[in-house]
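Minutes, structural biology subgroup

Action item carried over from last meeting: produce the structure token record for Ribosomal RNA small subunit methyltransferase G (Actinomadura yumaensis). EB confirmed the sequence was re-checked against the source entry. Recorded below for completeness.
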Amino acid sequence: MFAAWVFCGTIRTVGIALEVFGDALPVAERYAEFLAGAGVERGLIGPREADRLWERHLINCAVVAEAVPQGANVVDIGSGAGLPGIVLAIVRPDLTITLLEPLLRRTRFLDEAVEMLKLPNVEVRRARAEEVAKEFAVDVATARAVAPLERLAKWALPLLRPGGELLALKGERAAGELDEARPVLERFGVRTAELRQVGRGKVDPPTTLVRVVAGRVERPPRRAKGSRKRSS
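Output recorded by EB:
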């Protein structure tokens, strides 16, 4: 069960991972091993990140689940190596998650990860957000290290149903990005735009989210089909 703890770093991290992932911890371990192996080899994870995958990436993403409503439909924009989308799927099997990623080598990695981890609540879609906006009306859109909020909002908000939420994982510049993005957010007629911290006591510092609640959309888009699009 503890094959991946070599990547954890500290005993405290082991305890927190047990708390956060619970019965799903063995699945999270397999994902950590895949990230540290194939993820590094294929350039999706930097080689220096392998020794701090749990604290910096897995637990940091898992605590985002605190902000996601029960049974939500989620689209993870620019999913990359599956952070936070795959982590959320592991820790929250009640969620239905689409990993949206335009690059072929990354969608291949995601397809392999989803198949290996046996995640029935996940589909992989190779596309840019702006290309599929009319196909989605989801409850939550997530993104991590994709783009500044001003640009990310233009991609994410058209994917949300009215009242749906963008949860963007951000760092030290979160407040500044939110201020810079307010003109764009106002044009989209968002209901709420605020900072929220999750994972207190589990990650230090806590994970910072920019939470944006979508307003009315001009042309309600249709919901995406459930079949997975395989990369070729």
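Discussion: The chain has seven helices and seven strands.
Next step: EB to file the record with the rest of the batch.
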